[in-house]
Amino acid sequence: MTMAKDFDRILDECIDRMNRGERMEACLAEYPEHARQLEPLLRAVTQTKAVYSFSPTAEAKRAARQRFYAALDRQRQSSLWQKVFSRRLAWATLASVLVVLLVGYFALRATVFVEQIPTITIPNPSAEGNFVFLVSDDVNAITDFSSLKVSIDKVALLHSGDSESWVEFVPEAKEFDLTLLTGDRTQELWRGNVPEGEYTKVVIYVSQVHGILKATGETVDVKLPSDKLQISKSFQVSTGNVTSFTYDLTVIKTGNAQNGKYILKPQAGESGTGQQADSNRDKGKEKQNK
User: Fold this and answer.
1) Of 88, 121, 131, 183, most Cβ neighbours within 10 A?
2) 126 with 238: CB under 8 angstroms?
3) Which pLDDT tens digit goes with each residue over 143-154?
4) What is the pTM of this model?
């Protein structure tokens, strides 16, 4: 049941991203383990949007109205037998009207999806803040690297409620090495005060990924699904408590051993709250001093 809910959440996230203009391939690259299931569903969404993008011309609308009024006129003047069969035309005209209404509804819905969500920028960190942001690595292909340094520009949290808003902050530590953050190890990037309430999504904006292979010392290009990595995860920030959120990243290898490519992606299942903020804060400082 949990796996099904995770897949439904991933599917909703991909549809939301495609409605904002992202390509289907970006979603598939971010979730390679679900790509086989996601691709036919996302392709169907794309085709459905193409169908609903139809907009009847003024001439077609005028012709439809004429047919509708003609059908009404025949119904008033025809025999009982003719009335029975003429109802089919009236129902067909009504169906056409309903299709036009549905087209308008989906067009409006698509417009709502691309509306700009307001952004709140947190100007300064705070040692006594109610929110702590940490990063960690879920072991996949990280053992191929002697170092894998990730640089990020900012972090955004989607605050839900009566109206959605993005809460953004710039990390105190803008670069971290994932090879030092395997297993249960984490590094604190930011601590400060954010608005209280429920949050449903966390996005990090990545500016650079610099990887060096352990076996050869070669610098390799680590790909990203896009210029940002995002996960949908619900958590609460409340009065009197410190909420510690760990964003789990992983690097995976695709293709064969010689020509394989590396992809950096988030791990929604391993990310979330529950870490001890104080102890992780100390660990992060230790890692930065190494």
Assistant:
1) 131
2) no
3) 999 999 999 999
4) 0.58
